[in-house]
# Entry
Amino acid sequence: MPKRYATELEHAELATLPDASIDTSDIPDLDEDFWANSEIVEPEGTEQVTLRIKRSVLQAFRDTGKGYQTRMNAVLESYARTLKK
# Structure
């Protein structure tokens, strides 16, 4: 039986756990019905563009560290989804 933990484990602690100690009882098995109704979804690619952005906006994202362009894209993608409704 998997062990219960009083607090959430850090990533490093999780990485050291043997598979047998991870509780997967709430995850349903992936049976034939699941795979019969599944479909392959290709990830959408990105395109390099030139974009004019206020310095303050760019700096705010840069201040969040590495991956700021990915985060900027996520914000724009979220907004674009609202336009499709």
The chain has a mean pLDDT of 89.
